[in-house]
Amino acid sequence: RKEVEQDPGPFNVPEGATVAFNCTYSNSASQSFFWYRQDCRKEPKLLMSVYSSGNEDGRFTAQLNRASQYISLLIRDSKLSDSATYLCVVQRGASKIIFGSGTRLSIRP
Amino acid sequence: ETGVTQTPRHLVMGMTNKKSLKCEQHLGHNAMYWYKQSAKKPLELMFVYSLEERVENNSVPSRFSPECPNSSHLFLHLHTLQPEDSALYLCASSQDGQGPGYTFGSGTRLTVV
Distance from B6 to chain A by nearest Cα, in Å? Predict the structure, then answer.
């Protein structure tokens, strides 16, 4: 079983829709959680950190559920420019950093 | 220049060649990383350098040899690679090793023939 698991998608949704995806992690010692975004043939870029209390950045909301060991990302009012692969990242310690395989999102006009 | 710069952007090499990938960061960070991204696989952490000392080596074959001469530069020396080593190699940097709130370079797309 992979330490970090994501639904690979692709999620294909119309512009303006709300879309959510989850990521599960298996190691309860994991300390920090992040969502990264990677555009086709580009490097990953930090989208947002994920906190137990939940956090929001504009149209994006991230949530952490430590009891069930999953994190989620919600995108409201999706835009064409949101099309990308979203990577779930779990960290324990300075150098134990595990990336999920990513969830592909495609927004159609 | 700003951010994290990687060269070359693309590299094709034969299995008997020796080549090096270069990474340079202009962010004043003190930790640097090499990642490998293969098609349809998650990013794999290869090496971590913190304050120019290697602190992590994730069972990477010896045909990959990292070098960190100072906190701004990181190299990945390649020799006698295999076709399955073809991938996107990404460099990243962070401050105090507190990744992954770190910055990635654009990567080197490596093809081994």
Answer: 11
Structure tokens at A33: 């959680």
Judged by a CB distance cut-off of 8 A, whether residue A48 touches chain B is no
Average pLDDT score over residue span B44-64: 83
Reduce the DSSP state of residue A87 to 3 states and report it: strand
Residue pointed to by tokens 């692969």:
A85
Instruction: Tell me the pLDDT tens digit for each residue of A71-85.
Output: 999 999 999 999 999
Is residue B75 less than 8 Å (CB to CB) from chain A?
Answer: no
Q: Is B36 left (phi over 0), alpha (psi -120 to 50) or beta?
A: beta
Residue B86 tokens, joined: 């073809």
Residue with tokens 């081994």: B112
**Residue A90 distance to chain B (closest CA, Å):** 9
Q: Kindly state whether A91 is in contact with chain B, defined as any CB-CB distance less than 8 angstroms.
A: yes
Of A71, A108, A103, give the one whose Cα is nearest residue A87: A103
The answer, for B101 touching chain A at a CB cutoff of 8 Å, is yes
Q: Round to whole Å and give the CA distance between B11 and B56.
A: 25
| Closest CB from A34, A42, A97 relative to B45 | A97
